[in-house]
Design a protein that fits this description.
The protein has 3 domains: 229 residues, Carbamate kinase (3-Layer(aba) Sandwich), CATH 3.40.1160; 76 residues, VC0802-like (2-Layer Sandwich), CATH 3.30.2130; 63 residues, VC0802-like (2-Layer Sandwich). Helix content is 42%, strand content 19%. The longest helix has 28 residues. By secondary structure, the protein is of the alpha/beta class. The protein binds aspartic acid (ASP) and magnesium ion. Magnesium ion binds next to α8.
C-alpha cells in the first residue's frame, strides 16, 4: 500500500490524557487524508513499573507488588476519566481492568514461584502497550473515527528469544496481509501495540526495551508503507546530545546507515534495530516531535543529496565495559583465541560495540554494554577454563572506567586527515585515548576514553568538526 502512512508514538507522546489527545489530533488529521496505521508505546514509565512489580514479586515482596498494581491502575483510570466521556468510560474501564488483571495473575504467579520465567515476563510487560492502545483507540472512536486497538501478538511473528526477539518477516507479512490489510483498505485506523509479538506457536514475546520503534518499522516494511513517522519528544536526530553540547543542531536529513550507526552507538532517538527492515524497501522515515509540530524533524533516507564532507554527528555511551583477552604464551594461536572469544560472545548474545587488536602478543580488547558483562564473562571463562587454569591466558581483564565516543558520517569516507583532527582535538582536552576502532566502511570512528573524559571529548569533536548550529 504505497499511500499508507505508518506512525509510531513513543511513551512521552502517550504519557498523559493531554498527550494522547494531541497524538489523536495528529492521527485524525492524517487519517482524513490517507490510510494510516498507528503503533503506540506504553504510557511513559509504565514498562519500568511493570518490570518493577515483577521484581518485587520475584523477591517475595507482596506489598511492593500491590503498591505497583495500585499505581498502574490509578494512572490508567485517571487517564481514562480525563480522556473519555462517562458512557465511553463505562465501556473502556472494564477492558483496562481485564488487561491489568492479566498482569496481576502473572505477577501473583511469579510471587508464588519466586522466579520470573522470561516467557511470562514478556507476556506481562506487553500489558503496558495494550493499555495505552486501548485508551487511544477508545478516544479516537469517541471522536467518530473508525479506530480499533490491536494486540501486535496477532500480527508480529518472532523467534523465541524472549526479551529480545527478532521478527520472522515472511510470516509477519502473511499475518499482516490477513489481519491488517483488509481493515486498512476499508480505511479503518488500527492502533497497534508496539514492543510485542508472538512465536509461530503463539507464545508471547517482546522485541527488547525501546522496541516499539522496531515494531513500527517491521509493520511499515511488511505493509509496503509509503512512509514511517516516528513521533517522540525531541525535534529530530541531532548532531550531539544537547545536554552535553549547547550548540547541537537538528539534522534535516541523514541516511539509514548514519541513523543506524548513531542509534547503535548510544543516540536515544531510535531503537538500533529500527532501520534494517526499511532499508531493502527504501521506505523513508521521519523522526518528529509530537510536542513541537512546527519543527520539520529529521528525514532518514537511503541516500542524502550530496552530503557534506566529514562527520554528521557525535554520540557517546558510558554504560560500557572494555574486556581484554591476553594470551600469556606464544605457544597458542592468538587468532584461535580471538575466534573462540567471539564464539563465546555470540553465545552470550552480546553485541560487540568496538573490537581492536594491535599487538605482537595478539592480545585484543572489545567493548560491550555493562548490562551484558556478567553473561560475557561467564561464557568466556567457560570457553577458556583450561587455558586460564594453566596460565596460557592471563586473567580476563575488565575495565569499567571507560566510555565510547562515536563519530559518524558517510562523508568521512576517503577523506584523509579527519581521524587526525579528531584525535588531536580529543588530546588537546588532555583526554587519553585508550582504544580506537574504525571499520573499512569509514562510516564510524569509535574512540574509547576514561569516563571522566567522555563529555569533554564529545564537545571537542563537535567543535572541531563544526557540527553545531
Ligand atoms: N514500552 C517499551 C519500553 O519502554 C517499548 C517502547 O516504549 O518502545 O521499553
Ligand atoms: Mg522509545
Amino acid at each position: 500500500m504505497k499511500d499508507l502512512l505508518v506512525m509510531k508514538f513513543g511513551g512521552t507522546s502517550m504519557g498523559s490524557a493531554e498527550r494522547i489527545r494531541s497524538a489523536a489530533d495528529i492521527c485524525a488529521s492524517v487519517h482524513k487524508e490517507r490510510p494510516a496505521a498507528v503503533i503506540v508505546s506504553a504510557m511513559s514509565k509504565v514498562t519500568d513499573m511493570l518490570l518493577e512489580a515483577l521484581r518485587h514479586a520475584e523477591g517475595g515482596d507482596e506489598r511492593g507488588v500491590d503498591e505497583m498494581l495500585a499505581r498502574l491502575d490509578a494512572r490508567h483510570r485517571e487517564c481514562c476519566q480525563q480522556l473519555l466521556d462517562p458512557p465511553a468510560q463505562a465501556d473502556t474501564q472494564p477492558v483496562l481492568d481485564d488487561i491489568l488483571s492479566e498482569f496481576e495473575r502473572i505477577a501473583r504467579g511469579v510471587l508464588m514461584l519466586g522466579e520470573r520465567p522470561p516467557r511470562s515476563v514478556d507476556e506481562a510487560i506487553a500489558v503496558g502497550e495494550r493499555l495505552s492502545s486501548t485508551l487511544m483507540a477508545a478516544h479516537l472512536q469517541s471522536r467518530g473515527i473508525d479506530a480499533f486497538a490491536l494486540n501486535a501478538r496477532e500480527v508480529v511473528v518472532t523467534d523465541a528469544v524472549f526479551g529480545n526477539a527478532s521478527p520472522l518477516i515472511e510470516q509477519t507479512r502473511e499475518k499482516a496481509a490477513n489481519f491488517l490489510a483488509p481493515a486498512l483498505q476499508a480505511r479503518r485506523l488500527p492502533i497497534i501495540t508496539g514492543f510485542n509479538g508472538s512465536t509461530l506457536d503463539g507464545r508471547p514475546t517482546t522485541l527488547g526495551r525501546g522496541g516499539s520503534d522496531f515494531s513500527a518499522s517491521i509493520l511499515a516494511s511488511v505493509l509496503d508503507a509509503g512512509e514511517l513517522w516516528i513521533w517522540s519528544d525531541v525535534d529530530g536526530i541531532m548532531s550531539a546530545d544537547p545536554r552535553l553540547v549547547s550548540d547541537a543542531k537538528v539534522l534535516n536529513e541523514i541516511t539509514y546507515r548514519e541513523a543506524a550507526e548513531l542509534a547503535y552507538n548510544g543516540a536515544k532517538v531510535l531503537h538500533p534495530r529500527t532501520l534494517a527492515p526499511l532499508m531493502e524497501k527504501d521506505i523513508p522515515v521521519w523522526s518528529k516531535n509530537s510536542f513541537n509540530l512546527d519543527a520539520p524533524g529529521t528525514r532518514i533516507v537511503p541516500e542524502t543529496r550530496e552530503g557534506p564532507i566529514g562527520p554528521r554527528a557525535v554520540t557517546s555511551m558510558v554504560n560500557v565495559a572494555l574486556v581484554t583477552v591476553d594470551p600469556a604464551s606464544s605457544a597458542i594461536s592468538g587468532t584461535r583465541i580471538m575466534a573462540r572469544s567471539l564464539e563465546a560472545l555470540a553465545t552470550a548474545n552480546a553485541e560487540v560495540l568496538a573490537l581492536t587488536s594491535s599487538s605482537y602478543r595478539q592480545n585484543f580488547c572489545f567493548l560491550i554494554r555493562t548490562a551484558e558483562l556478567p553473561s560475557v564473562i561467564e561464557n568466556l571463562e567457560a570457553a577458556f577454563s583450561i587455558e586460564l587454569t594453566h596460565g596460557y591466558l592471563h586473567p580476563i581483564d575488565v575495565d569499567l572506567d571507560v566510555g565510547l565516543i562515536a563519530i559518524v558520517g558517510e562523508g568521512m569516507k576517503g577523506h584523509p586527515g579527519l581521524a587526525g583532527r579528531i584525535f588531536t582535538a580529543i588530546s588537546a582536552q588532555d583526554v587519553n585515548i585508550i582504544a580506537i576502532a574504525q571499520g573499512s566502511s569509514e562510516l564510524t570512528i569509535g574512540v574509547v576514553v576514561r569516563k571522566s573524559g567522555v563529555e569533554k571529548a564529545v564537545r571537542a569533536v563537535h567543535a572541531e568538526c563544526r557540527l553545531g548550529a
